[in-house]
Amino acid sequence: MAMEWLSHEQYLDHAAAHARQAAELAQGADLGAAVPSCPDWALRDLLFHTGMVYRWIGETVGRKAAERVPFREVPDREMPEGGEAAWLLAGAERTVALLREAGPDVAVWGWAHGGGTRWWGRRIAHESLVHRIDAELTVGVRPEADAALAADNIDELLTNASDFDARAFTSRGELAGAGDSLHLHCTDVPGEWQLRRTAEAFTLEYGHAKADAAVRGSARDVMLWLNGRLPQGEPGPEQFGEERVPQLWRAGLSLT
Fold first, then answer.
1. GO molecular-function annotation terms (predicted)?
2. Which segments of the chain does DSSP mark as H helices, in order?
C-alpha cells in the first residue's frame, strides 16, 4: 500500500522552515567553501541553485504553466553579492506563498506524475530539506530530519523515479536488467519499499519482502544514505547482502 502524503500546508511549512534555516546557515559563512555532498559546488553555487529552483517553481505555478518554463524566462536571476541569503529566502517565500494561495488542486506542469500544485508542494519541501542538509554539511553542522518527513523524502524520490518519463534521473537506465532486488526499511516510522529490476528499469512495491539486499535504519539515516548526504564518518543505516547491490540502486536513483 502506497504511503499517505502529508498535507499541502505541512509540505509548505517544511519548505519555508528549511529555507529559513539554509539562509541562516549562509549568513557569515565562507561562500567559497566546498559543499561535500556536491563536489563541483561551493556554498555560493548551492545558494544560487536553490534560489533559482525556488523562482522557477514560482514562475511555473504563477503562470499555471502547461509546459516547462525555460530558466531564461525566470525573473530575478541575479544573486546580489553580499545579499545571497536574503535573495535565497525571498525566492522561497514568494513561491511558498504562491503555492499556499493556489491550494493543492491546480493543474500545472511538473516533471513527474503529471505535476500539479500538490506535487510541487511535496517537491519544494524535499528540495528545501536536501539543500538545507547540503548547507549544514558545508558549515560542519550534523544534519537532523523529522522522521516522518525523512520517510516521505524516500518515498518522493522513489515514486518520482518510477515515472519513466521523468528525465531527472539520468542514471536510471543502469538499473535495467534482472536480479539485485533491494529492500529499504525505516525502523522508527512506517516505511518499507521493495525495488526490483526490470527490462525497462524497476518496479516499486510497498511492505516487507525478502530481497537480495536490504538497507535498514532510522528514516533519517536511510534518507541521508539514499540521497548521498551521510556525514563523513557516520556509519549510516545497516546494510545486508552484497555490498554492490545497494550501491547499484543508489547510483541509479540519483536525482540530477
1. metal ion binding
2. 8-26, 43-63, 84-102, 117-139, 147-161, 219-226, 244-252
Query: 8-139 is classed in which CATH architecture?
Result: Up-down Bundle (1.20)
Helix (H) or strand (E) holding 184: strand 182-186
Question: How far is 210 from 232, CA to CA, in rounded Å?
Answer: 30
Query: What is the reported pLDDT for 256?
Result: 79
The answer for 86, left when phi > 0, alpha when psi is -120 to 50, beta otherwise, is: alpha
Q: Which residue has the cell 539562509?
A: 23
**Which residue stretches of the chain have pLDDT < 70?**
none
Query: Could you tell me the CA-to-CA distances from 5 to 149, 181, 255 in Å, in that order?
Result: 10, 25, 20
- Residue type at position 192: E
